[in-house]
Design brief:
Elements lengths: L2 E10 L2 E11 L2 H11 L8 H27 L9 E3 L2 E6 L9 E5 L2 H8 L3 E3 L3 H5 L9 H8 L6 E6 L2 E7 L6 E7 L2 H11 L8 H4 L5 H7 L3 H4 L13 H9 L6 H21 L6 E5 L6 H10 L4 E4 L10 H14 L7 H4 L9 E3 L2
Parallel strand pairs: 3-6, 7-10, 10-11
Antiparallel strand pairs: 1-2, 4-5, 6-12, 7-8, 8-9
Helix pairs in contact: 1-2, 2-3, 6-11, 8-11, 11-12
The protein binds adenosine-5'-diphosphate and magnesium ion.
């Protein structure tokens, strides 16, 4: 919910090359509208009007991001094979044992992107997997496998976005992956409420305090952490309403202590997830959370014997990995190849993902 990240990436049989990247911040009013749409039960007025207005506005912003990306390179639109657009998630209701008809919903009208850029656009990547009984997430593991797998060393890739997910890349055997829990979403929301900033730069505020053990124990009780994969989650489960409910039954804590505890929640749950795979000896972080130095240090301290680095060490800046993954998924779709991994999402079979909007 911070910005639109766009990359220009060239794929050949021999590998890939990130040629350019561009980030377009989401304007405050749209960010506020998305935040309302993301919180179940918080829409006042006409929901249909609000959702589809935001969808259109996000589509315009995505088209602007592509224009900005191409402007940085001087690359003409007719040289681009396709755009893969994830869009902005406003609701994620995957199968979790209680949801009767699972769905997921990303906004950012692909018609708008294709019409304005003149480039074939592939979008709506998650819903086919959900229809086949899958989580619709995470979708990045096959891309991680294509670009980050090592023939002799077991690796893990940890993507710390709003939600954190991990991909396990054994040198031999099946690639797996799942959502671990909140990455930055609670950290960002708490900092916004107390300091009015969009995020805690480098995790400095959290690092200046010590986590509260009781609060951490209470947060770790969330049933999501105790479910077995395949699993995925979102802001529907991890939001300030949930945090406030946990805080309500404890003695009042200093705001900075809560921030430190939220950071500990992210690093503890990631650490616990990785400890289940002792053969993994290299861990690479990506997503905006890779810039949170305090988080990186906390995770390194937990996983003492392993390499902990960002994906920059493997040739892709952590900020551009997810965008690159959706470019790769668009390419799979255009070649008629399945993009989901049933071992990851739990879908009944592999399937071609998304819909193609011709230029
Ligand atoms: N310098 C930084 N210090 C700490 N956190 C950061 C920094 N830069 C980015 N982030 C975090 O990364 C998030 C954006 O990461 P991103 O991977 O784009 O997430 P999403 O996929 O949810 O948009 C920000 O909201 C913030 O929490
Ligand atoms: Mg982002």
């Amino acid at each position: 919910m911070d910005a639109v990240d766009a990359v220009l990436i060239d794929f050949t049989e021999h590998g890939h090359r990130v040629l350019a990247h561009h980030s377009k911040p989401i304007p405050d009013h749209l960010r506020a509208a998305i935040a309302r749409l993301c919180s179940p039960g918080h829409i006042e007025g006409d929901p249909v009007d609000q959702v589809w207005t935001a969808d259109r506005e996000m589509g315009e912003l995505l088209a602007d991001a592509v224009a900005g990306l191409l402007a940085t390179t001087g690359m003409p639109a007719d040289r681009i094979a396709a755009i893969g657009s994830h869009g902005q998630t406003i609701r994620h209701r995957p199968p979790d044992g209680t949801t009767t008809l699972p769905f997921t919903f990303q906004i950012g009208d692909p018609n708008c992107i294709a019409a304005r850029t003149g480039i074939t656009t592939v979008a709506d990547f998650r819903r086919r997997d959900i229809v086949l009984g899958g989580q619709g997430a995470p979708l990045v593991p096959p891309f991680h496998a294509a670009v980050f797998r090592h023939p002799d060393v077991d690796r893990a890739v940890v993507n710390v976005g709003g939600i954190a997910n991990i991909t396990l890349l054994p040198a031999r055997g099946t690639v797996s992956g799942f959502d671990v829990g909140p990455g930055n979403c609670l950290l960002d929301a708490w900092v916004k409420r107390h300091l009015g900033r969009p995020y805690d730069d480098a995790g400095a505020w959290a690092q200046a305090h010590s986590p509260d053990a009781k609060l951490l124990r209470a947060l770790l009780q969330h049933p999501f952490f105790h479910r077995l994969p395949p699993k995925s989650t979102g802001r529907e489960e991890f939001n300030l309403g949930w945090l406030d409910a946990q805080l309500g039954v404890l003695p009042t804590l200093e705001a900075g202590v809560v921030q430190a505890t939220l950071l500990a929640l992210t690093s503890t749950t990631l650490g616990q997830a990785l400890e289940k795979y002792p053969s993994v000896c290299e861990v690479y972080l990506c997503g905006g959370g890779a810039r949170n130095r305090a988080l990186l240090a906390d995770i390194s301290a937990r996983l003492k014997l392993r390499t902990v680095a960002t994906t920059a060490a493997l040739g892709i800046d952590p900020q551009w990995v997810e965008a690159a993954a959706f470019a790769w998924l668009a390419r799979e779709t255009l070649h008629g190849r399945p993009g989901n991994l049933p071992a990851v999402t739990g879908a009944s079979r592999p399937t071609v993902l998304g819909a193609i909007y011709p230029a």
